[in-house]
TrEMBL record:
This is MICA1 monooxygenase. The keyword Oxidoreductase applies. Keywords: Coiled coil, Membrane, Monooxygenase, Oxidoreductase. It comes from Podilymbus podiceps. One of its GO terms (molecular function) is monooxygenase activity. The gene is Mical1. Residues 13-154 form the BMERB domain. SMART domains: DUF3585 (SM01203). Its main location: membrane. Residues 23-50 form a coiled coil. It is found in: Membrane.
Length: 154
């Protein structure tokens, strides 16, 4: 292998490992969010029971329980927003990986001597190019969705 091919191979492996590590971190965070959802749900159920069952409690106590319940709802909404962002990031990672694989396949066809290409090779090269453009467009849509979400939250 010439030096530039080894460098490209090493960089590709590094990028793949980076995507893998990012995917693992996202998966861990999604699991943490799921656990937190369950905990918030349990706390919310307890507060709702307290609010419904305790007719003779002080108004201050009921107000405090209502505030706690509203806080739980806000926290749950915040976690749902974070979960949505993470799901978009997962889709982005999948598309990134797909783009990398298509790019590698396309490079193989493009590196082939033009006189040695069969008509099937040319068709396959064009199909891969179309798929690659499709993936890039899908990634672009995800970026726009993220930007719109960010602007709506502001």
């Amino acid at each position: 292998y010439p030096t530039w091919k080894r460098t490209l191979t090493r960089r590709a492996r590094e990028a793949q490992m980076k995507r893998f590590c990012k995917a693992q971190a996202i998966q861990r965070r999604l699991e943490e969010i799921e656990v937190t959802f369950r905990e918030l749900e349990q706390q919310g159920i307890k507060l709702e029971k307290l609010l419904r069952d305790e007719d003779g409690t002080l108004a201050d106590q009921k107000t405090q329980w209502m505030n706690q319940l509203l806080y739980l709802v806000q926290k749950k909404n915040s976690l749902m927003s974070e979960e949505s962002d993470l799901m978009i990031a997962v889709q982005e990672l999948k598309l990134e990986e797909q783009q990398w694989q298509l790019d590698q396949t396309l490079r193989c066809y493009m590196n082939k001597e033009e006189s040695l290409k069969t008509p099937e090779d040319r068709v396959a090269e064009q199909q891969i190019l179309v798929q690659l453009l499709e993936v890039v467009n899908q990634r672009n849509v995800l970026i726009h969705v993220q930007e719109e979400k960010r602007l709506s939250e502001l």
